[in-house]
Amino acid sequence: MSISMREIAKLAGVSSATVSRVINGSELVTEETASRIRKIIADVNFVPNTSAIHLKHGKSQIYGIIIPDLTNPFFTELVKMFEELLVENEQELLVANTDFASTRLQRSLRRMLLRRVDGVAILTSEHEAAALESLVQNRIPVVTTDHYKSACGISDIIIDFPGGIAQMVAHLKKLGHRKLGFIGGTEGLETSRVRRESFMDAIVNQGLTSRSEWMVTGNYRIDGGSVAMKGILSQKEKPTAIITANDLTAIGAMRAAYDKGLRIPDDISIAGCDDIEMSDIVYPPLTTLRISRREYAGMLFEALRETAKDLSKPGPQFRLPMSLVVRRSTGKAPSDRKPARKSATRRGR
C-alpha cells in the first residue's frame, strides 16, 4: 500500500512542506529533523513523485546520449563512464542507438524532446543543423563530436585525429615502413573523412608512400575490416603496414591477413584506433591510438553543464588528445628485418 507525503509528515510531526524540503535537499531544515524524516521515508519505503518535483524545478534530471553503434565496445565503454558521472550527480541517462541511420537519429531526437532531457550528447556524424536547432529551441543544450562548428546552445568536442594519426605514421616510419595503407570508416560520414584526410596529410608530411588502391573504405566493424583487407592483399604490390579507422576494423584486417597465411607483424604490421579493451586481448596485442573514455565522458558532462548556463551563446569547444599505445601488432618492415639465422648442422660424433 502506497503512503503519501502528508502521512510521512504526520508520522514525523512536521508539515508536508518540511518533508518536501528534505526530499529536495534543502538546507532550511535542521539536521536532526531531516534525519528523522529520512529514517521514516526509508522505513516505509516511500518513493516521492519525482515527475512532479522535476516539473516544479523545470529539470528532468535526465541526460540523453545518442551513439551510432551499440555493438562497438568503444561506445559502450564511453556510455558506462558517462552514466557513472551522472549517477554521482543524482541524474539518469537515456541512451539511443542510430546504427548510422539518419531516420533513427530523428526518432531518437523526438524521444529526447518528449522526455524533456536536461541535455543531449550526440556522438553520431549523420546529424543535420536543423535537428540540433530543434533541441536548442526547446532549451535543451547539445554537445557534438567533431562537428567543427560553433552555434548557440551547442558545444563541440574535437578529437585530435590529425595529431594521433601523425604519431602512428611516425611510429611506423621509425620501424622502416615506407609503404602504408589505410582502411577507413563508413563512406559519407564526417568522422570517416577526417580520419582519411589525417592519414593522407601525415604520409605526405613524413615523405612516405601510399596508393589509392591501398586506401579503402570499411564500416567501423570487424566484417568491414576483413573485406577491405582482402581487397588490399589482392593487389600485386602491397603495403607493409596498415592503419585502420578503429580497433574493430583492425581486428577484421588481422583476420584477413591470417587467412592469407601472413604473419603479424613479421609480414605486415596492422594498427588500430580507440584502444578498446579487446585490443589488448587479441593476438598479437594491437598497437593503437588511445582515446581516453574517462576524459571523453568528463568533457561531455562539463560541456553540457557549461552550455546550459547561457543557451544564447555558442558553447565551448574542447580538444580530446590521442596517445600512441605500442603493442606487438607492429614491427620492423619486412625489408628491414635481418634474415633468420640457420641452425648449425651437427656432424657425426
TrEMBL record:
It comes from the Bacteria. It comes from Occallatibacter riparius. GO terms for molecular function: DNA-binding transcription factor activity; transcription cis-regulatory region binding. Residues 3-47 form the HTH cro/C1-type domain. This is LacI family transcriptional regulator. The keyword DNA-binding applies. Pfam families: LacI, Peripla_BP_3. InterPro entries: Cro/C1-type_HTH, HTH_LacI, LacI/GalR-like_sensor, Lambda_DNA-bd_dom_sf, Peripla_BP_I. CDD domains: HTH_LacI (cd01392), PBP1_LacI_sugar_binding-like (cd06267). Residues 339-349 have a biased composition (Basic residues). Residues 326-349 are annotated as: Disordered. Keywords: DNA-binding, Transcription, Transcription regulation. Residues 3-57 form the HTH lacI-type domain.
